[in-house]
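Re: the 140-residue chain
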Amino acid sequence: MNPKVDFYFNKAQKWQQELEQLRMIALDCGLTEDLKWGCPCYTFNKSNIVLIHVFKDYCAFLFFKGVLLNDANGILIQQTENVQAARQIRFTGLMQVVEMEPVLKAYIFEAIEVEKAGSKVELKKTAEFNMPAEFQTKLN
């Protein structure tokens, strides 16, 4: 456990038990705990593996290279259509996290293997913004 991450768990008003359980699962997998983007982030050899974050209706594990995982259980969710690499597993209750612990650990270990293999996500080029000609001349 990283003491600088404790405040995140101590300040949580909603999902506190679920967050603590997710934290223990990540730490049980031998990951290093840090605070990135204001959220608990778990790394392997300084590479991001999984992040814990909360939303109004759920809390989640976010796998940075989730798109490369096998997802044998069909539980990974693409947060929005524009998210290319990351995938979430969402939780709405403590028992859900507890019951899924073996599956979650398997996904974490798979994500570690993806990192060890040096696998990269092939990102699609996003659409470029073409400024209308009348605005371009005003900028020049």
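The first strand starts at residue 32 and ends at 36.
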